[in-house]
Design a protein that fits this description.
There is one protein chain. The protein is of the alpha+beta class. It has one domain: Electron Transport, Fmn-binding Protein, Chain A (Pnp Oxidase, Chain A), CATH 2.30.110. Helix content is 13%, strand content 32%. Strands 3-2-6-9-10-5-4 form a seven-stranded antiparallel beta sheet, with helices on one face. The protein has a three-stranded antiparallel beta sheet with strand order 1-11-12, with no helix packed on it. Strand 4 and strand 5 form a beta hairpin.
């Protein structure tokens, strides 16, 4: 099969690309608005892209053709955000925060989650998340209706037992969810295996 993306609508392109580039890591991001209300939302167009300096990037779509999502709007205002990684135990809460709510309403209200202060940014983090990355905005690139936010990672929080003292992953203790095909599919990472690379 061949798909000519130039002849398809943005929605059709999204459906194809989001179905074949999988699994994708999920960035569960908290930001705050001008009144201090915490916004939480998941994004799977996300990854880490460098270590010198340490950078991540994610692409929040728009609410509609003209209106940025609250996450993008809050980052543009404050320049700060926290990226959390998601495990299966947090999957339902993560999906619940993807609900469309009026601006200024926190997605965390009523969820069994706890927020705690961050150390280097003013945005709180979700304590139940096994990993949290405190970030500031480096830059935002807009290409058509796409928005790519590049963040500098300043501090990493990890639950005990996920990383060893050198920062190596302890594979039995960390199983993040991956995003599969739209609209509602995910994958687990409990079946991990090693393929040594050649010298």
């Amino acid at each position: 099969m061949t798909f000519d993306l130039e002849s398809l609508t943005p929605g059709e392109r999204y459906r194809i690309l989001a179905s074949i580039v999988t699994p994708r890591p999920i960035a569960w991001i908290t930001t705050t608005d001008e009144k201090g209300t915490i916004n939480a939302a998941p994004f799977s167009f996300f990854n880490v892209f460098g270590s010198n300096p340490p950078i991540i990037a994610f692409a929040p779509g728009n609410k509609d053709s003209e209106t940025p999502k609250d996450t993008a709007r809050n980052i543009r205002r404050s320049g700060e955000f926290v990226v959390h990684m998601v495990t299966a135990e947090l999957g339902q809460a993560m999906v619940d925060t993807s609900a469309t709510l009026p601006h200024g309403t926190s997605e965390l209200t009523g969820l069994p989650l706890t927020t705690v202060p961050s150390e280097k940014v003013a945005v709180p983090r979700i304590s139940e998340a096994p990993i949290a990355l405190e970030c500031t905005e480096h830059s935002t690139i807009e290409i058509g209706s796409n928005r790519l936010i590049i963040g500098l990672v300043h501090l990493v929080h990890a639950h005990e037992g996920i990383l060893d003292e050198k920062g190596y992953l302890q594979h039995d203790s960390y199983h993040p969810l991956g995003r599969m095909a739209a609209p509602d599919w995910y994958s687990r990472t409990t079946d991990q295996f090693e393929i040594p690379r050649p010298d």
